[in-house]
Amino acid sequence: MDLRDIRQDYCSQKLNEQDCCIQPLEQFQQWMSDAIHAKVNEPTAMNIATVGENGRPSSRIVLLKEASLEGFVFFTNYQSRKGRALAQNPFAALTFFWPELERQIRIEGVVRQLNALDSDEYFHSRPYNSRIGAWASPQSEVISSKVELMTRASKFAAKYLLAVPRPQHWGGYRLIPDQFEFWQGRPSRLHDRIQYIRQNKQWIRQRLAP
Question: Would you name the residues annotated as active-site residues?
Answer without folding.
Answer: 189
